[in-house]
Recover the amino acids of this structure.
């Protein structure tokens, strides 16, 4: 009331209010804020159970745990927003890990190894996109196929063995992707931040981003509006493959060797991070800020439950429940009630 | 007097915003074939859906075999012997004929399916109808006509005494139609009452005994076919009052902007020729399924063209994808808003800018928010779209406003030809008039307007020239001043003769 009366005097307040309004006007922001609130509650609970949760060492570790989940979450969010799914993410992580490690143990320059690895992963991404967009395969089946193929490649590159240590020559590589710090933060975290900024910009500010939302919302209407739906679909799968590739490189740097089952079931972690953060599996809805929160909840749960001394089995059960409940809550909030079965 | 097996009286049914049926009477005798006739939207399907229990009536009475039924539902209708065969067949394509016939009431023998018994019974039913189909064939492998016969067999296997057929011949060849007629006649001689809905008036004389005509949700008349003529039937079907006022603007007809030459694309677009001049609106009239939507889709490059030429401003142009058309300035506001027109989960701003991102983006593909905002504002203001703000979901708007968004997104760019497919379907009168005004504005600006509509008064009220389509062909072209509703309907029902006169005598 007072605000309206003293309009002139309160311009400062109004500016702030406008900024706040503008942020709130972003689609999906409301939900992200709800989930963010849940994240804060979780952190407080874990902090109370075990105060060392908030130690700077643990925070550093926690962020480093969240980073890979966030990176694959970005890729999966892209794909989910177009109304598709990418099941090959985990295997591409494994493939990237094995290819890069094998090359480096054979003495290939790390830079060249990374380059070759990226090319291989890109091929999987393009293949996914082609199968879904051009061959009209259901995305679930198409990426189920490439998931198996990519895992097979991960196994074949070093004759069905994990690799030896990638050696001292790859020190720069390991520092760049995992051990090194820049301005007090681990490099892995920086990589996640940079990727997030780039892909968030593309999704929210560019033509391609619009097309991604549009085909997820209504692919027919998009076609009729002149959107090249095939190219857009291929693009999102390529983004997903690049993200998975990056996580594979991080994994190699972490363990200093290639492991064939690296990235196992990461595609599902990526779905969970996206969905908890409000990305709809039906397409057309969600923002990458939500994926950050979703990945953080995932990481905090893993880390916090570990700190609280919960065994792995219990951790899995709790995390599974949280995924289902968060999506159920979303449905309830959006429609007012859970879907009723039809009464005859 | 023979006894009626179905008596519907004073049936009224309204849907939000529309009075679909108003005090309609309908009756059917045993052993007769009755044709239920009327234009698109006359209420035929609604009436039959009430009879078969799909819709609930608002008021009126339903008597079947002399017994008053108050709470009709699909299950009850089935028990009473009412069966409806829809235009789109409802069968499980992956199951066998026998499995479909017994779907939901499978015979069980000591806990397992009695497949042999069901196959035998299915065979018996089919034989009875002189239908030669192996009951173990997969339904999806049969041609449509045979599938239809299976559907009839299924209806009869539950002892249907009242059989409703909605456009049963639209997908059939002449031989198949004859087969169907044989079956219908057989059923009639066995005492079934058959309601036959069809737009193919030339078929009537071969099988129909009586006709009942609806118009605008009202009962018009019932007559024995013997005592009437096709011309009389048509004049009863049309003659709709033109209630709405149509804003008309007269323009000097300019030069030819757009031509379609010998366009072929599938069965529903055959040898289409259209000329479009600046300063005129051309209406495409026809019945449902006449190939009008298919024609617009082929022109716009959604469906592939087999042959033909598109000429814009005297130059032959290539339109293979919608993007080609859009770049040339040919745009289409499609028929089905929810399916083809709108991204309902996205904001109005997103929807309006979607086809215009080429204008709104810089070289790097970054959207210019300011330009976008201005464009949205212009579209919203120009079309007077009523909305809380341009960030709300497009799906949350009313039908009329949704339609304006679909149209608005095209009008903010410079177009040469605008194609509207059923632009006023399902929207209220006020919104309709606004859309007519909009079309007139385009016409005044010298933009070519092509406009598909199933509402005859609308076609007559708005267009300067009318093209009538039937069965994928253009069957007539009229100047609006000379056109009458009778004449349009005559052209709209000029089907290629599938049935030989006298073949069934």
């Amino acid at each position: 009331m007072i605000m309206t009366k003293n309009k002139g005097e309160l311009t400062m307040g109004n500016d702030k209010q406008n900024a706040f309004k503008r942020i709130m006007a972003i689609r999906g922001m409301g939900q992200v804020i709800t989930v963010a609130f849940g994240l804060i509650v979780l952190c407080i609970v874990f902090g109370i159970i075990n105060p060392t949760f908030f130690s700077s060492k643990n925070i550093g570790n926690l962020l480093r745990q969240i980073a890979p989940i966030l990176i694959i979450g970005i890729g999966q969010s892209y794909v989910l927003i177009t109304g598709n799914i990418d099941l090959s993410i985990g295997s591409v992580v494994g493939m990237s890990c094995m290819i890069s490690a094998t090359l480096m143990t054979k003495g290939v320059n790390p830079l060249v190894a990374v380059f070759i690895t990226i090319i291989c992963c890109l091929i999987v991404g393009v293949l996914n996109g082609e199968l879904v967009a051009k061959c009209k395969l259901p995305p679930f089946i198409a990426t189920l196929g490439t998931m198996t193929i990519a895992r097979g490649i991960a196994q074949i590159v070093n004759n069905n063995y994990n690799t030896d240590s990638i050696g001292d020559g790859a020190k720069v590589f390991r520092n760049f992707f995992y051990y090194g710090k820049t301005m007090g933060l681990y490099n892995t975290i920086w990589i996640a931040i940079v990727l997030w900024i780039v892909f968030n910009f593309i999704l929210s500010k560019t033509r391609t981003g619009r097309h991604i939302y549009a085909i997820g919302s209504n692919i027919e209407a998009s076609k009729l509006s002149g959107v090249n739906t095939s190219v857009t679909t291929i693009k999102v799968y390529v983004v997903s493959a690049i993200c998975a590739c990056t996580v594979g490189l991080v994994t190699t740097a972490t363990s200093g060797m290639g492991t064939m089952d690296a990235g196992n079931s990461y595609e599902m972690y990526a779905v969970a991070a996206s969905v908890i953060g409000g990305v709809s599996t039906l397409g057309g809805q969600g923002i990458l800020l939500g994926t950050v929160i979703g990945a953080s909840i995932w990481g905090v749960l893993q880390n916090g439950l570990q700190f609280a001394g919960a065994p792995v089995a219990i951790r899995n059960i709790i995390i599974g429940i949280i995924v289902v409940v968060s999506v159920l809550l979303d449905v309830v909030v959006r429609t007012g009630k859970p879907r009723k079965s039809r009464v005859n | 007097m023979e006894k009626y097996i179905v008596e519907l009286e004073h049936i009224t049914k309204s849907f939000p915003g529309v009075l679909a049926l108003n005090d309609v009477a309908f009756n059917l005798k045993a052993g007769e074939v009755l044709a239920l006739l009327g234009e698109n939207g006359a209420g035929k399907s609604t009436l039959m859906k009430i009879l078969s229990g799909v819709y609930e009536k608002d008021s009126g009475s339903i008597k079947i075999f002399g017994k008053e039924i108050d709470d009709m539902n699909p299950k009850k209708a089935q028990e009473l012997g009412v069966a409806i065969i829809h235009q789109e067949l409802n069968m499980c394509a992956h199951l066998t004929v026998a499995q479909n016939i017994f779907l939901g009431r499978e015979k069980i023998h000591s806990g397992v399916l009695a497949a042999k018994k069901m196959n035998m019974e299915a065979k018996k039913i089919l034989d009875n109808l002189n239908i030669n189909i192996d009951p173990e064939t997969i339904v999806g492998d049969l041609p449509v006509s045979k599938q239809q016969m299976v559907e009839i067999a299924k209806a009869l296997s539950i002892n249907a005494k009242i059989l409703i057929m909605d456009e049963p011949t639209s997908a059939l060849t002449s031989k198949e139609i004859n087969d169907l007629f044989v079956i219908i006649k057989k059923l009639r001689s066995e005492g079934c009452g058959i309601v036959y809905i069809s737009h193919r008036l030339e078929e009537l004389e071969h099988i129909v005994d009586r006709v009942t005509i609806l118009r605008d949700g009202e009962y018009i008349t019932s007559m024995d076919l013997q005592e009437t003529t096709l011309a009389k039937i048509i004049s009863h079907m049309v003659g709709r009052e033109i209630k709405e006022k149509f804003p008309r603007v007269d323009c000097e007809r300019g030069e030819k902007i757009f031509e379609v030459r010998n366009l072929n694309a599938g069965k529903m677009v055959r040898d289409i020729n259209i000329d479009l001049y600046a300063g005129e609106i051309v209406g495409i009239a026809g019945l449902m399924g006449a190939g009008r939507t298919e024609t617009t889709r082929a022109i716009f490059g959604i469906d592939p063209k087999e042959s033909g030429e598109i000429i814009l401003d005297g130059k032959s142009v290539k339109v293979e994808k919608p993007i080609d058309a859009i770049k040339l300035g040919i745009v289409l506001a499609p028929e089905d808003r929810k399916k083809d027109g709108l991204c309902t989960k996205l904001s109005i701003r997103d929807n309006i800018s979607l086809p215009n991102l080429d204008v709104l983006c810089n070289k790097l593909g970054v959207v210019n928010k300011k330009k976008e905002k201005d464009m949205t504002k212009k579209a919203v203001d120009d079309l007077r779209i009523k909305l809380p703000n341009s960030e709300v979901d497009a799906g949350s708007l009313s039908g009329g406003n949704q339609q304006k968004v679909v149209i608005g997104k095209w009008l903010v760019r410079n177009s040469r030809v605008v194609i509207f497919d059923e632009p006023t379907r399902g929207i209220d009168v006020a919104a309709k008039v606004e859309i007519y005004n909009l079309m007139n504005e385009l016409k005044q600006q010298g933009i070519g307007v092509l406009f598909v509509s199933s509402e005859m008064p609308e076609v007559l009220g708005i267009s300067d020239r009318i093209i009538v389509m039937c069965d994928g062909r253009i069957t007539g072209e009229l100047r609006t001043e000379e056109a009458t509703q009778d004449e349009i309907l005559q052209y709209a029902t000029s089907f290629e003769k599938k049935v030989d006169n006298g073949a069934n005598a």
